[in-house]
Design brief:
Elements: H1 7-35, H2 38-54, H3 56-72, H4 78-102, H5 107-132, H6 136-159, H7 164-186, H8 200-227, H9 230-248, H10 251-262, H11 266-289, H12 291-299, H13 310-332, H14 340-355, H15 361-403
């Protein structure tokens, strides 16, 4: 699968870069809790949540570039990347001033967080080029550079006690400085860019699918915040750490598989689903056997008694891991509206929680698992139908050529 290295080395490198990115993202709120006042810590958490949502554009751009490049070779991507960054910047210019007033945020801190986000979105172009070219070792280095740029300055500022605004200023600086490094990593001197340029609609489709995954996988956390007491919603938040772990643990498989999926390799899809599913089964079994330990590691000794529910959270994440793989396969196949099933499932889950589900930790967790199973069933059925249609078309074309 990888051109510049063996698949094992590529997988380890990308996994290591992903672990670094997640570790840095985890360190920021941990340091904030120790260095900032409660008001500034709340502001930091709010800004991180807002920039995470806006950062979906980066993932959408990366997926779209990777798919188009895997299909068509080193085609021009600058135009679509520019419009994606411009659209994100305009959206932030509109939303952030409102957030400053409504959420009582500091204007400078909010502006620095927005600048950092624009830098992260711009990085999606070069990450996508390396992924589409199956240059996974440079891609791993690029992921590390982006995560270091996104969080490194903030971590440095918080660790040295510089406060919220100055820390976010350092984060904005490092996020922008990471871009020329990414450009150098993605460069391929002597390889001309030619062919059909990346269409902007491909970025919108991939971005919409990524946003839908984010919303459907976070819906239960927001509903728990709405319907549970503060103590129980805090316990539920600890449980969702297991959900996110099971969802993102096999992410490297999707990253490595995406270029082959874009080239119509059905064997890669089957193998990818098998590996992601196997990882999910292992994590669910481990959570069932050692749920108290899992909750204790995620939230501390106060949450050990919630361990009997650990397998539910892990199973939800495992299902969404498979859904993420299938949705990426749909995007790679240029399917129309690949995110539609996820929006429908989200709406049904919210409605069901509002009207029918018991407003308890196991009640909402069971509803989240049901939503994940439904999303997996629908997306799986759509992928199977697409594959069968493709096989039928290939056979028809072959028979037509034989007759001629």
């Amino acid at each position: 699968m990888a051109k510049s290295s063996g698949i094992g080395t590529a997988g380890l490198a990308v996994t290591g870069a992903g672990v670094l990115a997640n570790a840095l993202a985890y360190v920021v709120p941990v340091l904030g809790a120790r260095q900032l006042s409660p008001a500034d810590l709340s502001a930091l958490a709010t800004l991180l949540a807002m920039t995470a949502i806006a950062g979906v554009a980066s993932t959408g751009l990366q997926i779209a570039v990777a798919v188009h490049r895997a299909r068509s070779g080193p085609v021009p991507t600058a135009r679509s990347a520019f419009y994606t960054v411009l659209g994100t910047a305009c959206a932030l210019l509109f939303v952030m001033p409102i957030a400053v007033v409504v959420l009582d945020l500091r204007a400078p801190a909010t502006a620095f967080a927005a600048i950092s986000t624009v830098g992260v979105v711009a990085a999606g172009r070069w990450l996508g080029e390396m992924q589409g070219d199956q240059r996974f070792l440079p891609l791993a280095a690029g992921i590390a550079v982006v995560s270091g740029g996104r969080y490194g300055g903030v971590v440095l500022g918080l660790a040295t006690g510089l406060g919220l605004t100055t820390s976010l200023l350092l984060g904005a600086v490092t996020a922008v400085l990471a871009l020329p490094v990414l450009h150098l990593l993605a460069r391929r001197p002597g390889v001309p860019k030619e062919g059909e340029a990346l269409p902007l609609r491909a970025v919108l489709t991939a971005g919409g699918a990524t946003l839908a995954m984010l919303v459907v996988s976070y819906a239960d956390l927001l509903l728990a915040r709405r319907f549970l007491s503060p103590d129980l919603s805090g316990a539920y938040a600890v449980g969702t750490v297991l959900t996110k772990g099971a969802l993102w643990a096999p992410q490297v498989v999707t990253i490595l598989a995406l270029p082959r999926l874009a080239q119509g390799n059905r064997r890669t899809l089957r193998l990818g689903l098998l590996v992601v599913g196997g990882c999910g089964v292992f994590l669910v079994a481990a959570s069932a056997l050692a749920g108290g330990l899992a909750f204790g590691l995620a939230g501390g000794p106060d949450y050990v008694e919630m361990g009997r529910y650990a397998w539910i959270f892990a199973a939800t994440g495992a299902c969404y891991g498979l859904v993420f793989m299938l949705i990426n396969a749909q995007v790679a196949a240029e399917a129309r509206w690949p995110s539609a099933p996820l929006w429908v499932v989200t709406a049904l889950f919210v409605l069901g929680t509002w009207l029918f589900l018991p407003h308890t930790v196991p009640g909402i967790a069971a509803g989240a698992l049901g939503a994940a199973v439904l999303a997996l069933t629908v997306t799986g059925a759509l992928v199977i139908a697409r594959v069968r249609t493709s096989v039928t078309e290939v056979r028809s074309n072959h028979e037509s050529l034989s007759v001629e």
